[in-house]
Design brief:
The protein has about 160 residues and is α/β, with parallel strands linked by helices. The chain is about 45% helix and about 10% strand. α6 links the parallel β3 and β4. The radius of gyration is 15 Å and the shape is globular. The protein is built from 8 helices and 4 strands, in the order βαβααααβαβαα. The longest helix is centred in the middle third of the chain and has 13 residues. A 4-stranded parallel β-sheet has the order 1-2-3-4, with helices on both faces.
């Protein structure tokens, strides 16, 4: 199970070590071919390091539990600027989408109805369509953080996807 950049890492692990993976659940994953961001937008995203409240807040549609939001913002502020900028650069330029066709495990890709820039349409075209047999599940009423925005529904959908 991987969310956001963790979803991209999960895809990488699955293509690198397929014998270790029996199923894949990707939640608002960064596509293995990167996310199309124009060069003009790069400074805006890089500057979000200095404002973790805005970084997290702009990826929410529904107000989460204040305590969970505070923990998420605090966690986002823990990394170094260099790590943040490097992760963002990877988010934009990662390039192993051609390897997704190798995946042979049941795969569920979940995406928030109000997600941007990882819209449901982008996730379906850039992730689901590239993984044999993958299916997409739309998470209604949420954006990038369904585990914060609607934890009960998200947990139910995740458990169903995992078969538990």
């Amino acid at each position: 199970v991987g969310h956001s950049m963790g979803g991209m890492i999960s895809q990488w692990v699955a293509v690198q070590w397929p014998d270790l993976i029996s199923a894949l659940v990707l939640v608002s994953p960064t596509p293995a071919g990167g996310v199309p961001i124009s060069p003009e937008e790069v400074p805006f995203f890089e500057d979000l390091y200095d404002d973790p409240d805005q970084l997290i807040g702009m990826m929410l549609h529904r107000a989460p539990d204040p305590g969970a939001l505070a923990r998420t913002v605090k966690d986002a502020a823990q990394g170094s600027r260099q790590a943040f900028v490097s992760a963002f650069e990877t988010w934009r330029t990662v390039g192993f989408a051609d390897r997704l066709a190798e995946l042979q495990v049941p795969t569920v890709v979940m995406g928030g109805e109000h997600e941007a820039p990882l819209t449901p349409e982008l996730l379906q075209a850039a992730v689901v369509a590239l993984i044999p047999g993958a299916r997409f599940e739309l998470l209604r009423g949420v954006a990038h953080y369904p585990q914060l925005e609607d934890p009960d529904t998200f947990t139910e959908r995740l458990q169903r996807a995992l078969g538990v």
